[in-house]
Amino acid sequence: MKIAITGKGGVGKTTLTSLLAYAYLDMGFKVLAIDADPAPCLGAALGFPSEKLAQLTPIARMDELIFERTGAQPGTVGGFFKLNPRVDDIPDRFSVEHAGIRLLEMGAVELGGSGCICPESATLRALTTHILLQRDEVVLLDMYAGVEHLGRATADAVDAMLIVVEPTARSLSTAEQIKSLAEDIKLSHLYIVGSKVQSEEDRAFITEHAPGLPVIGHLTDDERVRQADREGVAVYSIAPELAQIAKSIIETIENEVPAP
Ligand SMILES: Nc1ncnc2c1ncn2[C@@H]1O[C@H](COP(=O)(O)OP(=O)(O)OP(=O)(O)O)[C@@H](O)[C@H]1O
Ligand SMILES: [Mg+2]
User: Fold this and answer.
1) Strand, coil or helix: what is 141?
2) 93 Cβ neighbours under 8 A, 6+ residues apart
3) Whole-structure pTM over 0.85, yes or no?
4) Dihedral sign, CA of 82, 122, 107, 246?
């Protein structure tokens, strides 16, 4: 299963990705977590120790690697370079593992054709396609905020997309934009996940304003999310209620989305 996690800035995408990673692991799956944020923080949310995180550089910033694979310096426009560079060794070579979860920092993700034609985007696009189509583990893509990066070419390789929303009008309006983009690129399994929900009223607001998409879970607003952040541990390990919600989200996805 390959799942992209999207939504407005700050709604809780990284928190949900971390919970899903450990929930999948507990359910017996192998997990590859991808941080597509140019300012990576999924590793911290997963409770990776700082020595391990220090070993990671986002692929988008690995100039030498990009040069080696495409034959052109990142930052150059025009000229000749390989549009289909070799990338199959990258996930294992440039990721780190902790507590059974493999983490790769991409620094960005190219899901489609709309990006610039430059060595970096060619590398990221090839890598994203490779990971989505060739890797056999569960892949969770923690996307950066916004919608611009959702392109056509390989989006159909994502099996499901989760749009995280807070009980606010603005985050639901971003969800609506994401939905319409996702439908343009024919992404079929789209779900809403509520986040930072404090009350029945919050739940009702999300359900009522969800842009015609099923709501498959609500993560409650929980002090332990901040506590986990301060202590450098995964929230999954200290908040069993949130862990349980993540498991039930996975059960829904696994029941509804056909295996790739
Ligand atoms: N369920 C929750 N309960 C309490 N606080 C939460 C919850 N989920 C997220 N937060 C808090 O909200 C903030 C943003 O969370 P997170 O980093 O997961 O969001 P994000 O969507 O990944 O943000 P960004 O767009 O910056 O990547 C963090 O400070 C986090 O502690
Ligand atoms: Mg994030």
Assistant:
1) strand
2) none
3) yes
4) negative
Report the separation in Å between the CA atom of 12 and the middle of ligand 2, taken as the mean of its atom positions.
Answer: 7
Letter for the amino acid at 93? R
Q: Using the structure block, give the residue that is written with the tokens 């959702």.
A: 150
Tokens of 259: 């295996």
CB 157 within 8 A of CB 130: no
CA of 174, nearest ligand number: 1
Nearest CA to 20 out of 252, 259, 250, 256 is that of 250
Q: pLDDT (tens digit, 9 = 90+) per residue, 83-119?
A: 889 999 999 999 999 999 999 999 876 655 445 678 8
DSSP element (H, E) containing 23: helix 13-26
What letter does residue 131 receive in the DSSP assignment? H
Q: Considering only CA atoms, which residue is closest to atom 10 of ligand 1? A: 12
**Nearest partner of 34 among 54, 49, 13, 50, judged by Cα:** 13
**CB of residue 95 inside a 6 A radius of ligand 1:** no
Which pair of tokens denotes residue 180?
């319409």
d(CA 115, CA 122): 9
Burial of 1 (0-12, 13-18, 19+ CB in 10 A): middle
Is there a contact between 151 and 113 (Cβ–Cβ < 8 Å)? yes
Ligand 1 atom, smallest distance to 229 CA:
31
| Interatomic CA distance for residues 231 and 106, integer angstroms | 25
